[in-house]
User: Fold this.
Amino acid sequence: MTGLVVARRGRRPAGSGVPLTFEVIAETLRERIRSGGLRPGDALPTQAVLMREFGAASLTVQKAMALLKQDGWAISRPGKGAFVAHHDHVADNADDLDGPEATAPVGGTTARVEALERALAEAAQQIADLRGRVEALETGSGKRGH
Assistant:
């Protein structure tokens, strides 16, 4: 077999330049975010929706989502799904921003720290709400009185 390159499933020959399906899914979602079709805080399409849209396997969609999270474009909220990460920048066509740093996602570590800070603030609020409910139940009123 001379000159024939046989690629294993899920792999591309080195230098082929053809993106894999998970890369196509990730780039499509990044473009939807850049264009404003998906805004910070919006829920990303579910795994089932992406599987149908791209004709992709579950693992392929999971790899795309992992790539978006790693690159700071998305965050996960356990039990709620994946959401567009909040950034200090907006879509590519923003008039008030210049240079590639204006449209690149926040660095992976920075995005993770910001996501953790938001999750912590949300958890603290949930704890405060639960504490209020418990106190109301303990007083026998069943409601918070003012």
Q: What stands out?
A: The first strand starts at residue 74 and ends at 77. The mean pLDDT is 76. The chain has four helices and two strands.
